[in-house]
Amino acid sequence: MVAPSSISTAELAEKINKHLGLKFEDKNSAWSVLDSPISGRGVFAARDIAPGEIILRDTALLAGPKASDASILNICVVCCALLQESDHEKIMCPKGCAMPVCNTCADSETHATECELLRHWKPKDGKNINFHCVRLISIVRCFFLGDLQRQLLYALQANSDKYYRAELQKAMAGFEQFPKDRKMLEYFYRTICIFNTNSFEGDCKVNGAEVRVRALFPLASLINHQCTPNADHYFENAQTIIITATRPIKQGEEIVTSYTKLLWSTLTRKMFLFMTKHFMCSCQRCLDPTENGTYLSALFCRAQGCKGIVIPVQTKTLQPDWRCTTCESVFPHSKMARYQDFALNTINNRINKGSVAEMITFINDMCPRFCPSSNYVLVEAKLNVIWRMSRPTTEEFNEDHLKCKERYKEEIVALLEKLGAGDCTLKKLITEEIL
Predict the structure, then answer these.
(1) pLDDT in tens, 178-233
(2) In the chain, N or C: fewer CB atoms in 10 Å?
(3) Complete domains list, the chain, with CATH
(4) How confident is residue 103, by pLDDT bands cut at 50, 70 and 90?
(5) Closest Cα partner for 385 from 409, 365, 367, 369?
(6) Name one GO molecular function term (predicted).
(7) How far, in Å, CA of 35 to CA of 282, rounded?
(8) 40 membership: H or E segment, kind and range
């Protein structure tokens, strides 16, 4: 782990204010940067904040298209607009930097500097897009940060990982003259670590089309995690993030968001946070085996003749024992993990292969035989049905299908209310059907 640079919290707050500048100046600011008991520094409410109120806007240090799959190859790396051409050669930068760009950005001042740098490194193949190089375009932009932005970058936590070095090496292999200077490579690698540790991702509309973007924000990155957060975020555009309150926040209370999906089970959240963020969460929800009475982790008891459910009891570990709430039998984590994996694989296979009608039948008739209705895997399956039925589709749905969709929505909203999630984005997506 690479620690942040030594800068006081007060100095950091001052630099963030300078970074935001007049564009985001707010005389009735709702936030302040202070020392946090959760993780060193955090963002706190400077006054009482109402549910749904915008807490802050932040502008990105580094940003670019979300680079998780081949779809990134059809997105302009500058403005993130979708590129219509199916022939990659026709959407390549005409100057030879080997990046996909739209016609407007190809000649823009914004692209000119990074285009020149990439051409100086000499792409090995100027006619075809190199996926690994495109993945790293957001990081390349660290070379063009001003002094203030570079100081803010260095003030953020950087969790190192061997896969990040592999990512850098794959990108380097796409150029004939990628620099070998040690200090430059370390700065580049550190930026990768910072970006992967702190960046946000989300959907935003560019030219009327929805695209997935990923960006690093100096203020929003200071917001700490809790599994039942009081704030949520969305992208106003590819360069701007907005943090909103999901429930009332009192003056002096820390503003927190969730780094995981709200409806994941405790063990799933813990594993994700440990593997990607390098910490173990010990918030109130994580310490409650019932998760506020939602029983998202619950599995059926394996004791003969018992029809109860089992939940993890040693919540401070990644491999807890499980105890039945009815017969109090205790089972080792290895056994219950195999059972959970079976449920996960069975349901995911159906999600990926079946029609919506088949999914509904499977959820209603088959799943109750091996998975409690509260289990997070089954909840994810119900969310999948809601999502697919809310999108344009050629499938036809009868009255029973529509009733099931409404019942699933009610069940999931009830879970969110038990968790105290407030007016979170997921609740809005479900109730307002803006999927």
Answers:
(1) 888 888 888 888 999 999 899 998 888 887 778 888 999 999 999 999 999 999 99
(2) N
(3) 9-58+217-237+245-255 (2.170.270.10), 62-212 (no CATH), 266-431 (1.25.40)
(4) confident
(5) 409
(6) N-methyltransferase activity
(7) 18
(8) strand 40-45
Residue 311 to residues 151, 166, 375, 417: CA-CA distances in angstroms?
Answer: 46, 38, 10, 20
DSSP secondary structure of 273-303: HHHHT------TTTT-TTTTTT-TT-EE--S
CA dihedral sign of residues 73, 77, 83, 89:
negative
Q: Considering only CA atoms, which of 141, 278, 143 is closest in space to residue 216?
A: 141
Which percentage of the chain shows pLDDT scores above 70?
94
State whether residue 172 is helix, strand or coil: helix
Q: State pTM to two decimals.
A: 0.88
Per the listing, tokens 């009815």 go with 326
H/E stretch holding 46 reads none
Amino acid identity, residue 47? R
Q: Which two tokens stand for residue 201?
A: 């991702």
Place 326 in a pLDDT band, splitting at 50, 70 and 90.
very high
User: Looking up tokens 């050629």, which residue turns up?
Assistant: 394
Residue 200 bridge partners (DSSP): 215
Q: How far apart are CA 72 and CA 81, in angstroms?
A: 10
Show the tokens assigned to 128. 């075809």
Residue among 217, 61, 76, 81 at smallest CA distance from 144: 61
* Per-residue pLDDT reduced to its tens digit, 113-150: 999 999 999 998 877 777 788 888 888 899 999 999 99
